[in-house]
Design brief:
139 residues; alpha+beta; four-stranded antiparallel beta sheet; 4 strands; PduO/GlcC-like; PduO/GlcC-like_sf; Heme-binding protein
């Protein structure tokens, strides 16, 4: 039996994701921070515009981390943390607390999780759109 390795998320991929997300945000007139993590949760790329709110950097990182840990867009997880939801009692004793606000999107290659992108600074729906646009641009 042979297996084919899936190419990991590279620094070049990560920079392309950041550029695409920033381009989408600038087109919409929104200032954002963008974080890209590899499959191991290591920071590959980060950008915060000087005009962005300082906390947007931490927000984008936590969104990316959440999307990576749960292998799902954070926009799809919002209801899961409400009382009675699947993750309502999910422990937050992880390295970094999870953040269930739209704007984190996992990155897949050949059906395998290779990283995640997080965008913070706009409205949650905008951030999700910017992150999703970046992932589509990478494909």
């Amino acid at each position: 039996m042979s297996t084919t390795a899936v190419a990991p998320l590279t620094i070049q991929d990560a920079e392309e994701l950041v550029t695409a997300a920033h381009r989408a945000a600038e087109t919409a007139g929104v200032t954002v921070s963008v974080t890209v993590l590899d499959a191991g949760g290591h920071l590959l790329a980060f950008r915060r515009d000087d005009r962005a709110v300082l906390i947007s950097g931490e927000t984008s990182t936590r969104k990316a981390y959440t999307a990576l840990q749960l292998n799902a867009p954070t926009a799809d997880l919002v209801d899961a943390v409400q009382p009675g939801g699947l993750f309502h009692t999910l422990p937050t004793a992880l390295d970094r607390p999870l953040l269930f606000i739209a704007g984190g999107v996992p990155v897949h290659r050949e059906g395998r999780l290779i990283g995640a992108i997080g965008v913070g600074g706009g409205a949650p729906e905008q951030d999700h759109g910017f992150a999703s646009a970046a992932v589509r641009a990478l494909a």
